[in-house]
Amino acid sequence: MKRRHLKSSGLRLQKRDHWEAQGLRKVARNKTNPPQRISTIPFLLGLSFLYLLAWFINHVVEVEVIIILEMTKK
């Protein structure tokens, strides 16, 4: 009787694993620490902000260097 129970539960586990692999059954997630995943739009906005910041700093430094070179020529 006990063996039969283990056999059936083993089959149930196999089915559950198969369903999880198929994506039919949702895998229980840890509620306290959900997997961290950044969404696309904020990521792209942050990336473009960093790009613009780098471009601005580069531009300011370039202008400063040109001004200093012009001053040292005279």
The residue-averaged pLDDT reads 78
Compressed to H and E, one letter per element, the order equals: HH
pLDDT < 50 stretches: none
Number of separate strands: 0
Q: What is the first-to-last residue Cα distance?
A: 102 Å
Radius of gyration: 30 Å
What is the structural class? mainly alpha
Give the percentage of residues in beta strands.
Answer: under 5%
Helix content: over 70%
Characterize the main sheet. none
Q: Which descriptor suits the 3D outline? A: rod-shaped
How many helices?
2
Q: What's the number of structural domains?
A: 1
Keywords: Membrane, Transmembrane, Transmembrane helix
Element layout with pairings:
Blueprint: H1 2-22, H2 40-73
Transmembrane segments: 38-57
Keywords: Membrane, Transmembrane, Transmembrane helix
List keywords for this structure.
mainly alpha, 74 residues, single chain, rod-shaped, 2 helices
Structure write-up:
The protein is mainly α. The chain has one domain. It is 74% helix and 0% strand. It is built from 2 helices and no strands. The chain has helices at residues 2-22, 40-73. The protein starts with a helix and ends with a helix. Keywords: Membrane, Transmembrane, Transmembrane helix.
